[in-house]
Amino acid sequence: MDDPLRALFIPQSRPEMGLGHITRCAALAEAMRDALGAQTVFALGDAPGAQGLAAQLDIETITLPQLGIRGGFCSGAIEAAGRGWDAVVVDCYDATEELFRELRDVAPRSICIDDLNALSSYVSDMLVNGNAYASELDYHAGPDTALVIGPRYAVTRSEFREARALPRASSSDRPGILVTMGGSDVDNLVLRAARCSDTLEIDFDAVLGAGAGYRHLAELERFVDGRPRFRIEQTPPKMSKLMLRADIAVTAGGSTCYETACMGLPSIAVAVADNQRPLTSKLNEFGVLICIGAPDAVERKLAPEVAALLDDPKRRTNMGRRGRELIDGWGALRIARRIGTLCGQSCRCIVDD
Fold it and tell me: Which one, of 346, 37, 333, lies nearest residue 158 by Cα?
């Protein structure tokens, strides 16, 4: 029997960068445990949002405070997590080409999860980009770097792959809206979206998701008080359940867009950060979601888009079908199998490539 593969995950954990990288790595770590029997540990900064999300996701962590500050991401910080790892998975915009060279002293294999093609060259053993636009990026990778790119490798948690087979709650006279703006939502977009929706003269039930790093809960609770068509779900343990009950979602333009696509849930997305623009633009082009642009467009564009989408069941059906066709929920397991092959570990599950 193979010894368990030991993998160290180093996601972006600076508080100003949001929590999406931790969520994405948690989904891949889950797939590696399921497919390879891997032991996975996360090295995180000490920001409360990052630590709170780690607790919610029940992942084993090593706290390295220097990872939570700009300029603190370096091989010296990573070496503080110890040695003896079989693979290091890095999902961080602070990573450099030199760092991946130095990681060879920490683990035999390194995996780079990259959205931006920001490095002049890539020297990791594997380069992963599961975004819908990934094939358009001209990566300069060495001959020994395996490219694992495209939406077949979109990383989503197993709950979405499993829940997409379940029947959706039937639409009623009061359609459901799910509003979720990421784990931290620094700009309080969930409240801004709720206020826009509240101007609509139609009946609906709205669930407002508040993530582990959300710092505006008291203000959101004051808004919901006296408005029975709104309710708050704080750090929901199963987002897929909320998606099954919704007719549309209003979401930030990060990895949640792939989760709603996998679930066949038509969405209206806000590109909260510059790195989300290619994602939302490409999924808008594919007819999977409606992108209204940057946060400053919320007050101008969101309410009419919500009203129009709720009034167009045919469009919602087409968007949901296209999303399910694009994202099948097996991407994380496909990556896990490729990592297993790279590290000489056999895969426990059958998954196509």
Answer: 333
